[in-house]
Amino acid sequence: MKNIYLDYAATAPTDPDVVKAMLPYFDSVFANPSSEHAPGREARAAVGQARETIASVLGALPEEIVFTSGGTESNNFALKGVARSIRGKNTHIITSSVEHPSVSKPCRSLEKDGYAVTYLPVDEHGLVDPDDVRKAITSGTCMVSIMHANNENGSVQPIKEIACIAHEHGIVMHTDAVQSFGHLPFSVDDLGVDMLSASAHKFYGPKGAGFLYVLNGLKLTSFMEGGGQEMGRRSSTCNVSGIVGMARAAEIAAARMVSENAEIRRLADRLIRGIREKISDALFNGHPEQRLHNIVSVTFGNVPLKSLLRELDAEGIYCSAGAACSASSWTETGAGEPAEGTKQGALRLSLGRHTTEEDIDCTIYALARIVRALRGK
Length: 377
What we know:
alpha/beta, 2 domains, Aspartate Aminotransferase, domain 1, 38% helix, three-stranded antiparallel β-sheet, Aspartate Aminotransferase, domain 2, seven-stranded mixed β-sheet
C-alpha cells in the first residue's frame, strides 16, 4: 500500500538539497558564530550570507531579518515586542478571530496585562473586511496583526489594503506569513507590512528555524535577554545549520515557485473536481480564488470527522482536521466561540512538492468510499 501525505500545511519534508547545505554545520563548521576566532568567523559568515539570501527573497534589507526558532516565536516577538515597547502609551491591538494560536494566545496574554484587543470577525470565506479594521481603530491603537494566508482554509487576506489603513493612522502592521512565505510571490513592499513572520519547515526547510522581518527603525522590546545576538534583538546562540538550511530552502522555493505552484494548483483543482463528482454535497471552505494553491478544506455533513481521519489513516492517507500545532479549532473568537461564517469539523488536505496525480485519484476514491460507509450507505 502506497502512503499518501497530504499534510504539507502542517510540515513539509526537508528538501535533500537543504539537508546537503546544512551538513557541514554539524561537524566541520561547528563553532559558535559569536566567537572571535577563525572557526567562529566562518560560522558567522555563513549566518550573514543566509541573512542576505532571505532578505533578497523577501525584498528586505539584511539587517531587517531577525532569526528565531520558528513562526510561534516570531509571532510572539512581534506582538509582545511592539506592545511592551510602548507600555503606558497606546495599548490597543487589532487582530482577527481566525488567527493561529501563536497570535491569539499572546493577544489574550497581553489582555491580562491591561492591553485592549479587538478580534475582528470574518466573512463566509474567512476574510477580514478592511473597513472593519478602519472602524476598529482608536486613538490608542498601536498595532494590527492579521495573518497573510489562513492555515486552515487557505484564504489569503487583503494585507496590503489593511496595511495602508493602518499606516494612515501611524499604526504598526504585522502579518503572520508562515503559510505563505516560500509559496506565494511577494515582497514586503508588495504587502506594505512593518513586520512579517515565517517558519522554515513550511517551505521544505528544517524545523526549529524561522525569522521575523522588522522594518528598520521599528522599536521592539526583546523578551530573549542574554548575550545580545541578532543585533541585540534576540539573545541565543545561533542555530547555524538551521539558518543555513532555511536560506537554502527559501532560495529553492523562489526559483521553483512559478512552475511548482502551477502544478500544485492543477492537482488541487483535480482533487476538488473529483470530490464534487463523487460526493455531491461536499462543502468547500475558504475563498474559491483568493486562496493558497495547496490547501483544500472540505466539510462532509453527517460524517464524524475523527472517524473519517482514522479510516484515511488506516489506508495510508495522511491529512488533518485543523492545525496540527493546535488542539483547538481555528474558528475560536476572543470569547472562545465559533466565528461567524466558519465551521468546525473541516478536513484539510494540503498538497506539496511530492504530490502526484495518482495520489489525488487514490484520495478521491478512498474519500468517496469511506464517506459512504460512515453514512451507512
